Amino acid sequence: MILFSSMFLYEYSTDMIAKAVKLSECDGVEFWVETPYFWIDRNTEKLESLLDFELLLHAPVLDLNPVSVNSGVCDLSLKETLYTISLCKKVGGKLVTIHAGKRSASREPVWTDYNSLHRYLRISSNFSRIKGVQLSLENSERKVNSLCKTAEEVEFFASSYGLWITYDIKHSSDEKFLKLVERIKNVHVSSEGDGKHVMASKSEKVYWILKELSEMGYRGYLTIELDDLGIGNLDFEKKVEILRKEADFLRRIFPR
């Protein structure tokens, strides 16, 4: 299944995002609930145009941090994740991706940060099982204060709480993540350009990672995750064209 992240079309309505799914010949969308058109009032009727496609959800991360030194931020981050899990159940979504967070200071995480992560994952995973929703932990960016930026940490927390893994290639090209292929359910596909998510088809390294995943038998979700700030000033038609080309690139690597 080839999808794209709704944040590439952040300025458009869900009807336009649904139109982009058809025009790009993708199978569906990973919907960030923070997509402004929806987030402003959280009216679930706005999601109806997406229900004919494969639908994944991404829990809120902007301005949030489940391991913040500020307990209020931790609680709000958890609350929004639980909301996303409930929303996923309500609209028939297939998977919710979550982030592990980061130490508030730009320093290596310490035991208090990991205690907060355990609490966040314990409550979130229990709630997802009650709701019958699949939960997937994404590997973090390789920054000094990030939790779950290594394959070892992601595997430990995912296995401890019965989670799937969302492997973001731009966040890490470490081949150790390939060894987790049986637990990976979603792959965020892009390469890096000035710190932004840009087209995977531009990167030889990303091509070989994807090729290896294909040869290892990976048949989970492939989510094109792009940031137009790393690409340029794009109108709707140009964005759709890029998504179509990236989808074709992925089909050549992962033949159906």
Automatic annotation (TrEMBL):
Domain of life: Archaea
InterPro entries from the UniProt entry: Xyl_isomerase-like_sf, Xyl_isomerase-like_TIM-brl
Keywords: Isomerase
Residues in Xylose isomerase-like TIM barrel domain copies: 24-252
Cross-referenced Gene3D superfamilies: Divalent-metal-dependent TIM barrel enzymes
Transmembrane regions listed in the UniProt entry: none
GO molecular function: isomerase activity
Protein name: Sugar phosphate isomerase/epimerase
Organism of this sequence: Archaeoglobus fulgidus
